[in-house]
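Input sequence (164 aa), recorded before submission:
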Amino acid sequence: MQHFVNEYEYTRELAVESARIWIARRLKIMRIIEIVMALLIAAFALWQKNIILLMVEIIPLMGVVTSFRTRKHVIEQEEDHVDALNANGEPPIIHIEIGENVTLTSPEADRVFEYSDFKEMFETEHLLIVTSKGGMFIGIAKDGFIEGNFADCRAFLKEKTAAH
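Predicted structure, token format:
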């Protein structure tokens, strides 16, 4: 069984990078649905020549505008979270061990994940992110390997998550 150890400082920059990808994943589908709804209502209103119904189409579009505000709020929230963890002047350390299972150790909690808990995996500039079926994001720093390396770990996780 392969074994990987990853450790890194969870800085504001990594928090923002992680939050941006979380937002992109969560809000993208919502925006698409709202735009499609607005177009359908507009088409129906034009077909019926109903100006009031045409004005109602603005409601789904307001959700799109709100989602942009939500994006900013989520990023600010994550920055505040990191600042709170960084109260002593040092960024929190995230420690991840990958082998029989995935063990995540952070200042807030220790968690153990089975590979069957994982839903998908994707990359950002500095992180390999694995999402759990419960919606939790586990960031693995590309340059944070103490044992093993990024390429082998990515291949190992891809194989393990695809098996479930």
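Checked by second reader. The chain has four helices and eight strands.
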